[in-house]
Amino acid sequence: xxxxxxxxxxxxxxxxxxxxxxxxxxxxxxxxxxxxxxxxxxxxxxxxxxxxxxxxxxxxxxxxxxxxxxxxxxxxxxxxxxxxxxxxxxxxxxxxxxxxxxxxxxxxxxxxxxxxxxxxxxxxxxxxxxxxxxxxxxxxxxxxxxxxxxxxxx
Length: 154
Known about the structure:
There is one protein chain. By secondary structure, this protein is α+β, with helices and mostly antiparallel strands. The protein has two domains: about 5-80, RimP-like superfamily, N-terminal (GMP Synthetase, Chain A, domain 3, 2-Layer Sandwich); about 90-150, SH3 type barrels. The protein contains three helices and eight strands, in the order αββαβαβββββ. Strand 5 (about 115-125) and strand 6 form a beta hairpin. The protein is globular.
């Protein structure tokens, strides 16, 4: 496992009892470098959505637990937030929970000069994702997909 994967997995392990104590769940954890700064982001969720108090409570407890565990030698910025309405669907559990929902897919390379597609998430497996768009099923190779997220419907 890479350093990033180890940090994310260890953070999830520490975070799990914290979120359970506040009645929320872990949506995702990511450790990323943006510019010269490292960020450790924990996305939390619950039925009906999280609020600022949920984020604040989890952030305080997680910060203390991370300080105690002290397994990340680099300086980093801790952020705890909701995954948002247009949440990114990175993991199979996110895709499974979104079957039947409207999604947006962005490809790394254009197909017939188009990189962005939208439709209803129909199915997925380890190699592909299928959406229904304009009455037709379109299947994408997961290696070609840069981003999958829930569509924002205003």
